[in-house]
């Protein structure tokens, strides 16, 4: 796994405080994914690579039951702290999930597909196809290369190179899903959340709010942060626009 160097157990303690767990920020994404996945109120959903359950728990408002699985014990420990009715969590590698064939109506994956190598994605998509019912939907929330090239992160030296390498491009992802028996589609979504004070934004960056930073040496991070914060202060001396853009890739399992 490309992401082996990212130690999610170590990141789990302050994962939510750096990335945010507010309903206001996360619900629009869950609603977009639920809508694109045609989730119905009786559906059984699996959230693969659920992390601290930030999105998983909000799904319970859209479906019958939801199971969040994650390979990291630390992440699942955090998730279990705020477990709601209709939500279950399980420590499991996504490549060897302990579910029978045709167990779920829908599978979702938020910001985790880039942690798998191409070979692992092939196996992952086969596993997901197996546990979904015929006509089941699989929605992956990820980043497009085009968006990465125009995001604020492009000002952080070295970051774009790392992420362009680990995030699969959209054509590749669609091709891999088709090979695993899915009919594919995609949708771009953007949420604007106003402005945040520049100093608060930079404090979160300095706290390493992206897992990509754990793939840099401390020296690379410090040098990059100095260059980045200088550029951001020049561009946005008072406030930084607060927005998120993702792409949803959908695979529908053939009946
Ligand atoms: C960037 S985090 C995203 C977490 C959550 N989906 C969110 O957006 O808040 C990626 C998660 O994928 C999990 N992960 C990575 N490889 C995995 C694997 N092979 N099986 C299950 N989970 C995995 C990590 O432990 C981590 O919690």
Write the layout of secondary structure elements.
Layout: H1 8-11, H2 15-19, H3 23-36, E1 44-48, H4 56-59, E2 65-70, H5 73-81, E3 87-91, E4 104-110, H6 118-131, E5 132-142, H7 145-150, H8 159-166, H9 170-179, E6 182-197, H10 198-206, H11 218-235, E7 239-253
Parallel strand pairs: 1-2, 1-4, 2-3, 4-5
Antiparallel strand pairs: 5-7, 6-7
Bound molecules: S-adenosylmethionine (SAM).
Helix percent band = 25-40%
Strand order of the largest sheet: 3-2-1-4-5-7-6
Query: Got a strand count?
Result: 7
Count of spatially separate domains: 1
Q: What would the average pLDDT be, to the nearest integer?
A: 94
Bound molecules: S-adenosylmethionine
DSSP strand content: 25-35%
**CATH homology-level superfamily:** Vaccinia Virus protein VP39
* Order of H and E elements: HHHEHEHEEHEHHHEHHE
Q: What would you say the CATH architecture is?
A: 3-Layer(aba) Sandwich
- Shape annotation: globular
CATH third-tier fold name: Rossmann fold
Number of helices: 11
User: How large is the radius of gyration?
Assistant: 18 Å
């Amino acid at each position: 796994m490309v992401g082996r160097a990212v130690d999610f157990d170590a990141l789990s303690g302050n994962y939510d405080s750096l990335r945010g767990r507010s309903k206001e920020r996360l619900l629009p994404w869950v609603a977009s994914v639920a809508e694109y996945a045609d989730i119905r109120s009786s559906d059984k959903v699996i959230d693969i690579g659920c992390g601290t359950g930030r999105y998983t728990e909000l799904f319970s408002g859209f479906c019958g039951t939801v199971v969040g699985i994650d390979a990291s014990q630390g992440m699942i420990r955090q998730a279990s702290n705020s477990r709601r009715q209709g939500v279950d969590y399980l420590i499991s590698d996504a490549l060897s999930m302990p579910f029978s064939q045709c167990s779920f109506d829908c599978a979702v994956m938020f910001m985790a597909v880039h942690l798998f190598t191409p070979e692992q994605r092939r196996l992952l998509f086969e596993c997901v196809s197996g546990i979904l019912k015929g006509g089941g939907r699989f929605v992956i929330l990820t980043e497009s290369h085009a968006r990465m090239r125009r995001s604020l992160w492009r000002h952080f030296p070295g970051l774009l190179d790392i992420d362009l390498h680990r995030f699969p491009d959209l054509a590749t992802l669609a091709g891999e899903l088709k090979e695993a028996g899915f009919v594919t589609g995609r949708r771009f979504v953007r949420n604007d959340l106003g402005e945040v004070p520049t100093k608060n934004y930079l404090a979160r960056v300095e706290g390493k709010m992206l897992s990509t930073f754990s793939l840099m040496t401390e020296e690379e991070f410090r040098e990059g942060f100095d260059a980045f914060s200088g550029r951001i202060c020049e561009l946005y001396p008072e406030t930084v626009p607060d927005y998120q853009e993702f792409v949803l890739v959908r695979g529908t399992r053939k009946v």
